Amino acid sequence: MRAIVANFDCELVWAQAHSPGPHKTLPKVVRRAVSELSQSLRVFAREDDSLFTLCDLAEGIPPALKNAGEVLLWGQTLQHHGKPSMPSQEAPWQEQLWLLGCDADVAAACNDRRFAAKLALPPELELGSVRVVESIEELDAYVERGELGPDQSWVAKAPWSASGRERLTRRGREVEGEQRTFAKKLLQRYGALLVEPWMQRTGDFAVCGLIGETAESCTIFPAHQLHCDRGGVFRGIRIDDEQTQAMLGPHNAPLMQCAHLVAGALRRRGYRGAFGIDSFLYQDSSGTRLRAVCEINARMTFGLVARAIASGAGELTCDFAPSC
């Protein structure tokens, strides 16, 4: 039996295993809501494959999942299904995904925002004032003296989180009141925060692919568009390679270069499987700039889901808007 595991809470699981905590489990209402998104993962399934949602996993790993042969996870959190394989390069990429996996601790390390912050990317494609802080005093020092966004805005993010959760977005050079209390709680739970200027986006993009055993076995797809709200929270995807490249213009080539650099770094760290990077364009005094690697998602992404839907329909474009 093959099984798809829609463990959309993988960031929480990694945080529980690798940070001080305590971390609350997702409420039942949230589990039910995100479980509705699980059906989209059937684009990778055969007719007789099983699908396990967050609701199915609420009481632990079901016996049927323990006995599964091939397992496709949203995020690598199950140690006993983490053994890498060597899929045939002739097989469709959707089938190759089933045979790629890694240790759950490696996946946690690669999804830690501190991993992305340490990558040696071209300086012109990074925000120069990204810092890791481990105390409220270090956060105060950054906010007081650091290079913030155009309107003195900044954001502090937990090492693991999804959908805009577990972060503090603030304007000004003081951390006070409820925001200070929240920042202290985040630092207590995670032990560190990644803080950076908050830039107003003019366009959001992503690149996704597969990490195999060798550089030659990695697959990296063209960039696609992300639809995000003003707070940077993901709302949908547009797959249209020609249009996306035109929107990126001269920034397309350096974005793809960075995607290959990230893929190489993930492979050297031992990661195998689906991955994606989130990027955005923004304006500063010199014109339009590219933040090439805003996030690294060393897991399945909805970009791959959307691309698989387009491929299965024989289309070159696809609009995908998950709702929960």
Care to give the gist of this entry?
The protein has 324 residues and is of the alpha+beta class.
What does this structure look like?
By secondary structure, the protein is an alpha+beta fold. The protein has 3 domains: 3-111, no CATH class; 113-120 and 200-320, 2-Layer Sandwich (D-amino Acid Aminotransferase, Chain A, domain 1); 128-197, 2-Layer Sandwich (Dna Ligase, domain 1), CATH 3.30.1490.20. The protein is 31% helix and 24% strand. The chain is built from 11 helices and 14 strands. The protein has helices spanning 10-18, 28-35, 63-66, 93-96, 104-111, 113-117, 136-145, 177-190, 241-248, 252-269, 302-313, and strands at 3-5, 50-52, 71-73, 131-133, 153-157, 167-171, 193-197, 201-211, 219-220, 224-228, 234-240, 273-284, 287-297, 317-320. Strands 8, 9, 10, 11, 12, 13 and 14 form a 7-stranded antiparallel beta sheet that branches. Strands 4-7-5-6 form a 4-stranded antiparallel beta sheet. It has a 3-stranded parallel beta sheet with strand order 2-1-3, with no helix packed on it. Helix 1 crosses helix 5 (104-111). The chain is globular, with a radius of gyration of 19 Å. The two termini are 29 Å apart.
